[in-house]
Structures are given as structure tokens and as C-alpha cells.
Structures
1.
Amino acid sequence: MSLANLRCFWGFWGLFTLLWLALNRDIFFVQNVFALRQSMMQFSGVLAIAAMSVAMILSLRPRWPEIRLGGLDKMYRLHKWLGIGALGLAVLHWLWSEAPKWAIGLGLLGRPERGARPEITDSIQQFLLGFRGAAEGLGQWAFYGMVILLLVALIKLIPYHIFRYSHRLMPIAYLVLVFHAVILLDYGMWITPLGPVLAALMIGGSYSALVSLFGRIGVGRRVAGEIAEMRHYPGVHSLETVVKLGPGWAGHEAGQFAFATTNPFEGAHPYTIASAWNPSDPKVTFISKELGDHTTGLVDRLKVGQKVTVEGPYGCFTFDDGLPRQIWIGAGIGITPFVARLKQMASLQPKGGRPEIDLFHTTREVDERALERLAGDARAANVRLHLLIDSCHGTLTGERIRETVPDWREASVWFCGPSRFGTALQADFAAHGMPIKDRFHRELFELR
């Protein structure tokens, strides 16, 4: 995760933990397993539902956190890890509920002595207690469902379309768990500082869940369009699709991406935009590579004139850092944002000094027509292109880049390509003294 993500991720857990402990200091003085069990169930339950609420809010793709986290790709990474954290806490919550019962059944623990329960005179508390049985039963089934849905989301061997359809059930599980949390949260917590914070998160999360269930995520950023042109590059198993946009598109920066929907049953898929924005000719170009169950066969499924819904733009991979030197690295289909930037640079008059740029494109596959177009775009933008075919030139490494660009210490690096390759390059440049927090920029977008 990025530094901003790490701060948000660990800061979230730290602040909620400190707040809960400040309000429940008696956990440090419990005298038996069953008293500890009650405290730990409350603690794990509060943190789990808070994390799920934030993850649900982030699923709406809100603009404010996207900008501050460095792009939707980074925001989705935070969404993913909050989900993983919530899953771990939900499992812990369930174990604290069930393990003492198992221990009693095995004779490892004696049954607790239950004294007389205090009389409840508060009408609201009495009302909530009337739903306790339903909240416990439904919450257990929602927990089982959430575990299955999150495992489907995390196991990438499971096809994307199964993940997509199953993930649409997550808001239902979340709403059930909100009901579970409202009923079973220690009643006294509602009048502490924790109560309003938790209530606000669950209200926001519930709203987000309903927006998701009704298919309204990103509706304000959707524009109707139709496919105007298609170009197939069989050598690299890629398809270039030009979409003519209707009214409403606010424009985009080179390096951003959008969600495109050609089949409502398949839903929206993210594509990096491979074209500069021209308001007088409102079009966006997408380049897709046959890498998965959706993109494989697109050339046969799409037709010129076909209606498309485009949502966006998203992302902050926009090359704006003010440095006089840049190194671009586009691996495979990761060349797409750089194609857009080349076209933008060629179409606009320079405002002040442009950075000096070296573009490295490394690829396993070759399509002469595609490479000729890339070389032409680079010449038009006055960018030095370094083309490396794996079978001819070997692997691109940080050492090769530094040898080619001797003044690399003055440059920023912009990388788009396979995640492991990017991680290796980032670590290599960091080991050679590059301040990667400010100088190494990556596109990390993954839906899973």
C-alpha cells in the first residue's frame, strides 16, 4: 500500500482501539474468561462493523478521498485491506462467541453462574432487547455469508464474473450485520463518544449499501456513447476501441481511466484511457489486452455502432510533478496511459519548459503496426522511446534504466505494468537512493 494508505489503514485501527479502550478500561481488570469473552466480543464487533462501514463508503468511489489517497487505485487498495481486516475481526468475534461453549462441552470450563439480571426500565433498551434473538441468528448467517463472499473476492483463481456477481450480495450481508450491531452493542456505549461515531459510519455504510444494491454507484459520472472505431492488433492480442461520447463528459487528463459498460449483465470494467481530450471531438480511446475471461474475445463481441456507457474519469496518474526530468516505464498493456500522454503532448503547445522524457516499453509480444504507431506518437511528442522485446533484448532492470539515463537522480519515475515488476523496480530504485515516496509513481488499480 502507499504511505497515505498505510497511514489511513493503521490510523483507523489505532484510533478506534484507543477510543474503545478509553471507554472500557474494565477490560484490564476482568477476573474470568466469560467476562473477558463479553468484552472481546464487543471490541471485535465494534471494530469489524466500523471497518466494513468505511469499506462500504469507499465502494461509492467518492471524489474527496480519491484525491487525497492518490487515485481510485489506491482507494480500492484501502477498501480491500479494510475488508480483509474486517474479515479477521469477524472471525475473532465468532470464535469468542463459540469457543467458550466448545470448552464447556469438552469439560475444560465450568458453566458460569448467572445471577439475577438487573431490571431494565429504559423503554428503548427494552425495545432493542426484543430483537436480540433475531439479531444473533441473522448475524451468524450473515457472518458465514460474508466469509464466503470475501474469500471469493480474494481468491483470484475464481473467475472474475463469479466474483462480480457474488460481490453484489455483500451489501445485503452488511445491512444484516448493521442490524446485528445496533441491537447487540452494549447499550451504554450509545451515549459515549463512540456511539455517534459508530452511528454515523453505519448510516453512511447503509446508504452506500443501498446505492450499490440499486446499481447507482457512479451514476453522476456516467455518459452514453457508442463505438466509433475498432483496431485489432493480433500480434499483441490487443484491441483499440474508440468511443464517441454524448453530452456530459467533463474531460479527462492523460493517464486517467474510466469504467465502460457494453453489456449490462457483465457490468462495468475499468480501462485506462489511451487518448487526449478534445472538447470539439468528444471521444475516448481504450486499449484492452486478452488477459482474462472478460477481455478475451472482445474483438468478436464488440461492433462499431454498439452503445457503451462510460463512467469517469478516475485516477491521479497524470504526470504532473513539476520536475524537469521524467522516466516512463510501460510494460505490456501498461503502455496505455503513456500513449494518452504522448498524444496530449503532441496536440498542445508547450506551456513553459516541458520535462525531458525517456519512455521504456518492454513487451513479450510484437505487433509491427502497433509499435510503428507508438514510435510515431513518441516522435510527435519529442519523447525518446526505448523499445525492448524480451526475446531480443532481455529483461528491463533498474540498472539498465540508470545506464540509459545517467541523470536519473534528477528524474521522477512513472510506472504502469505488472505489479511484481513494479514492486521490484521500486525496491531497486529505493536501494539506490531514490526518494520513492515523491519520485516513484505507480498505477496500482486492481478490482480484486
2.
Amino acid sequence: MPRVLTAPVVADLIRPTLSAQGVGPAYLRLTEALRHAIADGRLPEGSRLPSERDLPGPLGLSRTTITRAYAELRSQGYLRTRRGSGSLVQVPHVPGGRIDHLLTPSALGEGVLDLTCTAAAAPPGTSEAYQDAVEDLGAYLPGTGYYPGGLPVLREVLADRFTARGLATSPEQVIVAPGALAGVAIAARALLSRRERVLVETPTYPNAIATLEGAGARTVAHPVDHVHDDWQVTELTRALRSSGARTAYLIPDFHNPTGALMPAEQRRELGRVMRALGVVPIVDESIVDLPLDGQPVPEPLGRHVPDSVTVGSVSKSLWGGLRVGWLRVPRARAEEMAASRLKLDLGVPVLEQLVAARLLQDAPQILARQQARLREGREIVLAGLREHLPDWRVRVPRGGMALWCALPASGSTALATAARRYDVALAAGPNFAAGGGLDGWIRLPYVLSPEQLGQVAPRLALAWADVLAGRVEGGRDARGEEARRIIA
């Protein structure tokens, strides 16, 4: 059954946009207001709009105006009409799809649940932020458009955010990059010599492993306890001393993939160790803005290690299509980081930086909606696992975008293969392993729509039954396709 949106609810959603548009034919103003609400997700895809006879009253418009606006939306691909179901919201078809072919698993077709990617749809307000940014763009057009360090307005916003969280930062310490992963690459190339060792947690973000190794580094794996005391500072200290690593890549804030949050005391203890050993951490804060249970996030790890480099982005908390990330660097390393930055490109597009600045300034309201969406998704997947796969173990994360599940037996790679038969794309546990292993674990993002997430556990139960029955061969699925490694 489609979600039914009442006329008063729709009127309240679009009235501010409708009023702000000023002059012009009423039906076109209404069309634009509804289109913006659909594009921003405030009118969800698949929901049913009020009938053409119910909406005129709450909006104070004629039925003819409503009818013409609905017809215009249908012609633009934002509505479809079904006999007996009314006018259903849809998002227009995008030629080539909404996910690039290099990122999408092979043969990913209609109805496939893609669980290889922890990234959500754009939050409400995104299209308005782009419109406002376009109005600001004119002031930058007389210049070259090259801002390798980042627009001053964005650097100021980011510096203020770090300072408010307890890590005093000036705009001169912020460098804007095209995503957090680019920030890791910039830091790695500045800090690491070829074949130099860098400590990484295992499990960890797979693309970070590839980025560090691409910079010529050798990774030293530090196992993270998935059940109790995640970071085990004593063991981490021993790993640093025995390996001689002077750089570490860490995700202390809703760790990817486990969702763990490093406690404040552990941050202080780890800071003492790293200062004593002269270790420079690259701290990945990509998911720091996604606590889901209303809890405060401890002060940044960088506060306890003055020489640390912190990277972040808007890709996880806001939208992956907004390719804006950053580095927060110590003053003493600003010059070498700037030199490394210039080897990447000549800057993030000006428009994207203006959009990011606007969204970050409105972050409290936007993030509250994102957190609510993720919280709902987390509960749907957990409920599905309890019903269909009760012997899978998972420690419920208090933030982030995914569950890290322990399987009853090794078989994550086989499960990823079997799941393709049931139109589920999975990232097997070994993809997250810096030093090998983890075939007994699987990551389950909860970023899809509620309707899609409700299908995850039933389909995985069928795939897991195939694994247990020995009906899965090697790294290929029933269609003979090889498993893939790209993970987002």
C-alpha cells in the first residue's frame, strides 16, 4: 500500500516555497513547489498525493490549478497515475542510472538491493542550497575559479565546527579536498615514504587500505575487538612499537564498518601513547555527525595528539554527490600538506563548496532528519535479523550507517556470492580486513528506503541457507559472475 499524504500535510510542506516564488501563473508555481518537495525527499517516492478535489481548499487554489500542476508533473516524470491508486510520486528516470558503472556491482538491475554502499539519498533542502549557491556564484566568476585550499567561506565554517567540538582551529588550518578519501591520500603522500609502515585497524574502510597502499605504504593490521573493548590501547601500543610505524589511520567516530565509538578516556590514553611514540594519526571523521541515540560524541581525537591530521567530508552525513571533503592540519605541517594538495588537482568546484557551506551552516536541522532516517533503517534491519536470522550476532551500533554482523560460521564470501541469486549485492567481510581473514563477518548498511530494508533479512536468509547447504561455488554466482571488491 502506498503511503497516503493528506491535503493539509502537503499544503504545509509546500506553502513556504509556494509563497516565496512571487509572481507567475499559479499552476507553474505550484508545479515548482511540488517538484522541489519531491526532489528533496519531503514527498517520498511511491507516496500518494491528495486528489485534485481535496488539495484546493488547504492551498486556497482552484481545482483547475491543481489539475494543470499535476499534469505538468506527470509530463516531467514526477507523477504517475494508476487507476484506483491515484497520483503516485516518482523520481524521473536518469539516463544511465543513478550509480556509476564503476561503483555498481556487475549486472545490478531493477529490484536489486545494493548493500555495498554506505551512502544515503540527499536530504531535504539540498536543491534549495544549490539554488542559493548559484545566486552567490556571480561574485566568484571574475576570478580564475581555482581554490586549491578551499573557499574562505567554507574554511571558516569548517574551522568553527572543529573549534565548537573542542579542537581549536583557524581557517588557515583547513584544506578543502574532493572527499575524505582524497584527504587521506593527501595526508599519506605528505607523511609517508615509500614502503614505510602505517598502522590501520582491522576491519577498516576498504578504500582507505587501497589509498594507503597506493601511496606506497605497507599496512600493519591492528585487530579491533568487535564485541567488547574495541581499540585495546595496550595491544595497539605493542603493535606500534613492534612495527616501528610512525603513522596510523584510525576511525574513532562510529567506525566503519563496526559502528564503534571510541570513549573519551580511551582517546586520552591513546593520545598519550601516540605523543610518546611520535606517531602521527590520520583521523577519519567521515561519520562523526551521525549519532543515532541522542548521545554526545567525545571531543576529537586530534585534541589529544597535536600533530594529527583529521579528514572528513559531507558524503556520508549529507550526500555523496556533493564531492566536498577536508583536512584539518597542524600549523607546523600546513606547508607540506599544501604542497601535497597541489599534486592532486587545483581545487573542488566553487559551486559545490558554496553548497557545502550553506548545508553545513544549517547542519543541526538537516542532520536531525538524516539521523531519524538512519535510526528507522537500523531498527528495520535489526528486526528482520531477529526474525529470519536469529543466530547472527550483532552489537547494535549507537551511530553510523551499518551493522557489523558475526555469522554463525565462516562463509561471508560465499554468502556474497549466493546473495546475488536473490538480488542482493553484498560486500564480503575479507574486503574490510587489512591483514586477511574476517570471512565470518558481513556489513549490512541501513541506508536504503524502509521498503527495501524490509526485504534484506528474508532474502539473506535464503542465501545463507544455500551457503549452509553447500549450494555455492567459489567466488562466482549462479550466472558465473565474479565477486567484486569496490566498496563505498
3.
Amino acid sequence: MTSQPTGVGRQWAEQLLSQIKADYSLPQLKHRPAFENRNGVLVCQRCQQVATAQLPDGRHYCRQCLVFGRLVEGDQLFYVPAQAVTLNGAKTAKLTWTGQLTDLQTKAAQQICDVIQTQQTHVLTAVTGAGKTEMLFPGIALAMQNGQRVCIAAPRIDVCLELYPRIQAAFEHQTIMLLYGGQTAPYKDAALVICTTHQLLNFYQAFDVLIVDEVDAFPFQDNPVLAAGVKQAVRPQSALIYLTATPTKVIQQAVQTGAMTTSELPLRYHGYLLPEPNCRPLRGWQQQLSRQRLPKRFLQDCRRCLAQQRLLIFVPRVADLQPVQQVLTAWLPDVALLTVHAQDPDRLAKVAAFRAESVQVLITTTIMERGVTFQNVGVLVLGADHRIFKTATLVQIAGRAGRQKAHPDNPVYFYYQDYTLAIQRACRQIRHQNQKGRRLKCDV
């Protein structure tokens, strides 16, 4: 018979307590006030935001983290202290990954181990396709063998779903909990947790090591609620590691002031440079699309690229997906095409089909910009001048190409009507990383 989870390190709103008691054994359950009065304003202790909303009876409540259970003035937050329960199996964690890190990856991995041992805050800046996940394996193993609890958090569900099987394969004998909104699997205590950054608001001083991937991505970037979730999820003495290919200004400033240590890897794991985008003016494509047409230049590029690889085609709006699919289906009648977007009910199945190579073209919004790896794909961005395509977004999108050693030169095309500052900066950033990569290769 399987015992109930203890809920170690978890926290709950008071209104959920009766339900939680039925699902958890809850040893050493403790509580603290849900709000703190700071200079005359009430601050939510779960998300650290000022509570301004009021009930009809005048009591304040927090709107910012309402999805995790309403917190009302006078309520308590209940939690199980992380030190109250010893998680089985952590100290016997064994790394079952049989791959080999490059010399540069090994150096970065050792820095991660040092950060975990010295309990620092650190950012690893590595180009897309550098193998950041694999560089984490030695540090994760070290932490768990020391009896520490580890969490890997990412802003998007797709990234978590991509990470989970890779981490599971690397630690075959370790219980790993995957958490994201809308999942149906029951919670279980685990020394290794993979979750969305939103789920961190359900933890309180739970982790000795917290790794936050894709910190420059929506919805994490510039989100004070999620930033607060990170800070409260770690124990007072802990290691906090950020991963990114495009560090934000906040991170850059933290590094400059010494609040955060840093390491950088400007080369992909296979040693090849990043594919540099081909920038192509494409006048009037939206008007043509409204007439169920697309510029011949774009269509010819699609056909030529498909001779050697599959295609990821990015469009700026969900409304563009079906019209582009219709035009391409008429132009390429023998090619299997799918569209996908964030609210697509078949999203996971479609991504799986593209990964299984049963589909040649996936037309998508920015939901596929990061955290996913596909074999041998070229990347085309239609309407790269749209405001949705920011500099970091374009860098990440370009990073979907050339990720395998067998296909390091997959093409990247940016199509636009206006050559925006975001396009210019993205191309400059990729060229700059490649310059660093060339110098690094010369020094090795």
C-alpha cells in the first residue's frame, strides 16, 4: 500500500486545509500569517505583492496569486517545514547518463558544482544548443548525494515537458516529480522536482538547490510574483542558479554589482557556430495572405529548404496560422503540415508528431521559440518585424536550427517589411556570440 505524501516543503491557503489533510499525512504542520503589515500596507506572504482588493466586509485579499487559493486578511498560510521529513533515496542518487561532456562543458559543470557547494547565486549564460541541461547533471547528482533537495523550474510547460524525460533518463533510479498547471498526476514527495515557475508559489523554503531555466522568457521576465516565488521556494542557505542564452538587464546588473557570479559558454556542444540569420525584405505579404497567396520568394525558399530538412515556420499571430497553412498546402501538396499555438487542445500531440518526424512542416507562434529541440530543422520567421518578435525571441527562434552535429548549418530566415531594431540586435548578438566562439576554439 502506497503511503500518503507528506507535503514536505509545500504550502497551502487556509481554505484548502481540509482538502489537503485528506491527501497528505502532514507531519509537523506549521503556519504563519498570510499577510504582513509593512508601513501601513498589507503584503501577501505568498507572492510578496500589496493586497489592495477588498471583500464586501472590508477585509483585504490578494488578487495576484488567487489561482493558488484565496488569501484573506486574517488568514494563515500552512506549510510543512522541509527539515521535518527525510526524503528517501536522495543520498543514493546515481547519475545513469552515459554521455560525455566536452572540455568546455566540463568546466561549466564544475562551476555549477562549486556554486552548489558554496551556496551562491549564479547565472550560466550559454548559447542555444550548448547543452545546458547535460551540464547540470553532475551538480544535481552531487546535491542529492549530499542529501539536498533540487528543483528545476522553467516558465513554460513545453520546456518542463522537454526536460522531464531527459532528467528521468539521467537519473533512472530516482523519483522525480513533474508539476505544472492542469496536470492530473497526484503529487508525490521527491528529492528532485521539475516544475513551471508558477508552481514555485506552492513551496516554502523547500529546496537546497533551485535552477531556473530560460529566465529571460515570458511570463517569468519582469514578473514580480514569479520572482517572489523563486525567493520563497529556496531554503535560507541554498544555491540559486539561473540559465539563459540572452541575459536580462537585471541579471547583467546583478553580475556587475557582484550580487551574482557568472559563467559563459559561447559554443554549442558540437563545436559549430550558431547559424546566422538571412534577412530578407518581403513587401506586402500580409495583403497577399488575405488573398490566399504568399510571395513567391518565400514559397521558393520553403521548397528549397525542404529538400534537405524539415521546417519550423513562425508567424506573429494565431490568426496567421491557418491562412499560411492553406497557401503552403496548395504550393506543397505532398508535404505534411500542422499548425500549433499555446491554446491548441492538440498542442502536445502535434509537437510529438513533429518530433517523431511524421510531419515535415510545423507552423507555429512564439510558443515554440525556446526549450524544444527537433532533429534537422530549418527556421523561417514570417513577419519578423512584428512587435511580438523581440530581440531575445528572435535569438531563441534562430537557436532552434543547427542543434545536431550532423546538421549544424540548418538555415535561418527572417522575413520582414521593416528592418526593425529587434532584428538588427538579434543578428548582432548572434554574430557577437560566434566571434566569442571562434576565439574560444582558437584558444582550446
